[in-house]
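User: My instructor asked us to take a sequence, write out its structure as tokens, and then describe one feature of it. I'm not sure where to start. Here is the sequence I was given:
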Amino acid sequence: MKKYLEILKKCPLFRGIAEDNLLRMLTCLGARVTAFDKKYTIFAEGTPARHIGIVLSGSAQMIQVDYYGNRSILAEVVPSEIFGEAFACAESRNLPISVIATEPCEVMLIECSHILHTCQNNCGFHQALIFNLMKDLATKNILFHQRIEITAKRSTREKLLAYLVLQAKNAGCDSFEIPFDRQELADYLEVDRSGLSAEISKMRKEGILDSRKNHFTLL
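Assistant: Let's start with the prediction itself. The structure tokens for your sequence are:
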């Protein structure tokens, strides 16, 4: 576990936890690390939610597929970020989403009940963990509502502009990279890929933006 310490110190779940306590904490929590190949399903839709995942290397996406097979990307998860916590805390019997590895990755899995219920050793860090977990859930709820605001826009252009403006704000710069390729961006915005590409081309010609692959500049 020692080789993951630098990543874990950046994880919001362990905020404020002293480094010398972290390894002991992971043992108490029964944390385990698993490697996944690209496109492997880490969490499958319809299965019980028991574990919280922390990406240690590589990346993954949270996706949802509707009745007609249309895919929506809910979030990109990169090293030090958490996924599955809301469903695990709610003890969902059927996950409404899947988590797919977008490249070879390593993931730490922790059974949520080990965080929410103190162990027989009555370790002092549980209160800090629960506080951090609740703060993470609140932050994710805000991000979820931001995504709803974006996808609720009527046109592809409005959705794209709302998303890019938010990314520019987060980056603190008019020039930035997004974590999606064209198909993934279309899935995130819940629009047709060809329509999205056509709209980006129009906006380039109109001098609204410039783009190259996943790099965008708002002009």
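For the description part of your assignment, you could build on this observation: The helical segments are 5-8, 19-29, 85-89, 112-116, 126-151, 156-171, 182-189, 193-205. Try explaining in your own words what that tells you about the chain.
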